[in-house]
Amino acid sequence: MQRWIIAAGILLLLLVGGGAFGYRSYRLNQPIQPVFLQFPLAPETSPEDRAAAVKSLTLKLREAALLARVTKDAGLTKKMKHATDESAASDLGKRVFVELGEADTPHGRVPVVKIGLQCKVKEYNTMLEASTHFSKALQNR
Asked: Which of 43, 123, 13 shows the shortest CA–CA distance to 76?
């Protein structure tokens, strides 16, 4: 009888531990609010000019040279567990987004350009670091 109690206790511990591990893994792999920066635009700009600005920024941010430099500076190959710098740079290029939006300011709502990176919960700190390297790389251009 005592053997059954010990076996049931061990089984219960394994079940609870496995459930906790599974729940933690589930939570860490959920998408999170993207990391992004907002840049205000002049309210008098036309929608066509705003769309052109978004298109040109998207092309600049997805340049292979810029992505390679950010990947190398931030050490994303190792942090994101990629085999090569090129694969890490292409993954980073897929995560970059540029979109139009609006923001509340003390002077009312103004149009903004949102530049950011999509990520999961467990990658949030890595993408924050990558975004700082993006801003440094863009300032050097």
From this structure: 123
Q: Is the pTM of this model over 0.85?
A: no
Give the 3-state DSSP-derived string for 73-123, with helices as H, strands as E and coil as C: HHCHHHHCCCCCHHHHHHHHHHHEEEEEEEEEECCEEEEEEEEEECCEHHH
Tokens of 110: 């103004």
How far apart CA 36 and CA 96 sit, in angstroms, is 9
Indicate whether 64 and 124 sit together in one domain: yes
Distances, alpha carbon 41 to alpha carbons 23, 38, 61, in Å: 42, 10, 18
21 and 46 part of one domain: no
Digit-coded pLDDT (tens) for 23-70: 988 888 887 777 677 888 888 888 898 899 889 888 888 888 889 988
CA distance linking residue 109 with residue 124, whole number of Å: 28
Residue 98 half-sphere exposure toward CB, CA atoms < 13 A: 16
Q: Do both 25 and 38 map to the same domain?
A: no
| DSSP H or E run through 39 | strand 35-40
